[in-house]
Amino acid sequence: MVSSMSTPEITAGLPLFGEERAVRAVAEVEAQAAKSISIEDVSVSYALGRAARRSVLENISLEIEEGEFVVLLGETGCGKSTLLRMLLGQERPTEGTISVAGSKVERVDARSGYVPQRYSLFPDRTVLDNLMMGPLTSNYHILGRLRPSFWGARRAVREEAFRQLAHMGLQASDAGKYPHQLSGGMQQRVAIAQALMMKNRVLLMDEAFSALDPSTRGSLQRLLRSVWSETRPTVVFVTHNTAEALFLGTRVIVLARESKDDACGSRVALDMKLAEGGMTLRSHGQEFLDLVEHIEAVSNGGRLTDLSGRRTALDRCGEDSGLAGRVGVFHEVGETR
Ligand SMILES: Nc1ncnc2c1ncn2[C@@H]1O[C@H](COP(=O)(O)OP(=O)(O)OP(=O)(O)O)[C@@H](O)[C@H]1O
Ligand SMILES: [Mg+2]
């Protein structure tokens, strides 16, 4: 991989006058690779009847660094799932470009794991087959399965599938069941296990925990955070739950529309980095409550001017209690863009 090459390795043998240019080129490649996801001026609109169009997303530009845990919030219909589908390459933006690890996303991108809002297990395959299918089909085509090494790999994938099932709080006996024999929450856990099986460097999760009861949701939130801490994939996680966002994310992004007008799509209304993540009411008390209130106000269409009181409260709590150290970037519609 170019990004792992050191500068001297690449520049060796080049004429001296080219060295500086080569060093700069390497630095650019490395900087690009560190940007796991790059969303450049993306707008999405759909035809609405013959002439009119419905704008969903408008001029979205975001740089997501490798290893960030980004949580995407916003009112229903603001375009969160649409943006996630664009990141996966399932749909193309009307305008603008999206790149993952430096290359443009032009079709469904196998480098990204995806847990869709409506989880999509293969109905005619058992839980175990659903889990094993991804790793086996991506690493072994039909003829590759004739190789002796396939059987060893298959055994390892099977063991990993049982490990993921146990992680998700499912029983080994669930492995032989078909999706219709599972509850909605169990299907959701299998869909999450399926995505984790692939060990992708980018994980896109759309309301992955929404069908779970509170205690299962809590344990899966802790599990996801520990998986992320261990392997540091780049995660983009959609939720409606602000507390979940503050617990999981290292960065919270809120999409919101300025008006209900069809011509007006969602923009980035709030982009806030949390240096630590892992915030809970218990650990952060009033700071946590202030943040939740602020995020929800922005998400519900609060404008910068409407939020002056809350911003003061947030600024004060930042100064008084060190929150400013954890909140790195903080801008809203109209503030910096
Ligand atoms: N293929 C499509 N054709 C026409 N309109 C679409 C299409 N896909 C999405 N939309 C519209 O785009 C808007 C945003 O949809 P999206 O599913 O991204 O919202 P969301 O933020 O994920 O909402 P929720 O929180 O309810 O899941 C909706 O008004 C939806 O009807
Ligand atoms: Mg959605």
How would you describe what is shown here?
With 337 residues, this protein is of the alpha/beta class. The chain folds into 2 domains: 36-111 and 201-337, 3-Layer(aba) Sandwich (Rossmann fold), CATH 3.40.50; 121-199, no CATH class. Helices cover 42% and strands 23% of the residues. The chain has helices spanning 7-11, 16-34, 80-88, 127-139, 149-167, 184-197, 214-231, 242-248, 281-299, 308-321, 323-326; strands spanning 35-48, 52-65, 69-73, 95-100, 103-104, 112-115, 202-206, 234-238, 251-257, 266-274, 327-332. Helix 5 packs across helix 6 (184-197) and helix 9 (281-299) runs antiparallel to helix 10 (308-321). The longest helix has 19 residues, at 16-34. It starts with 6 loop residues before the first helix and ends in a 5-residue tail after the last strand. Mean pLDDT is 80; it is low at 1-16 and 303-337. It binds adenosine-5'-triphosphate and magnesium ion.
Reconstruct the topology from this structure.
Layout (H helix, E strand, L loop, with lengths): L6 H5 L4 H19 E14 L3 E14 L3 E5 L6 H9 L6 E6 L2 E2 L7 E4 L11 H13 L9 H19 L16 H14 L4 E5 L7 H18 L2 E5 L3 H7 L2 E7 L8 E9 L6 H19 L8 H14 L1 H4 E6 L5
Helix pairs in contact: 4-5, 4-6, 5-6, 9-10
The structure holds adenosine-5'-triphosphate and magnesium ion.
